[in-house]
Amino acid sequence: MAERREDQDSDEDYEVVDLTDYARRHQWWSRVFGQNSGPIAEKYSVTTQIMMGGVTGWCAGYLFQRVGKIAATAVGGGFILLQFANHSGYVQVDWKKVEKDVNKAKKHLKKKANKAAPEISNVIEESTEFVKKNIVLSSGFLGGFLLGLAS
Prior knowledge:
Layout: H1 2-11, H2 19-25, H3 28-33, H4 46-88, H5 95-114, H6 118-133, H7 135-150
Helix pairs in contact: 4-7
């Protein structure tokens, strides 16, 4: 039995596989969508990329503007109603307690902000890499987003 184990060890050669290199060559979208999928810069012309980025950017900017206006109106209206209720005597607000709680929350946020989560840095790195790989599409998106905010 000992002889057999020695034979197996000498006959088997192991190959070391670098997983980062393998992952770079075999992207997940190739397995899911097929071999023709990949970075958009490889599949479409510059004009098409700029148009796709511009249209999606304009839609995102327009929606961001509309939702932002609605949210600002809701928050501002709520604050005005709270002030009206306070001055009318319906609500009594202990402003010293509010100030104390806000300062406590600020200190807590400052402590947490200094320790950035590793997930945030990973997302930033992935986003930067995407923008570098698809610079034409990204610049079209940014231009469209700014136009959507302005319209």
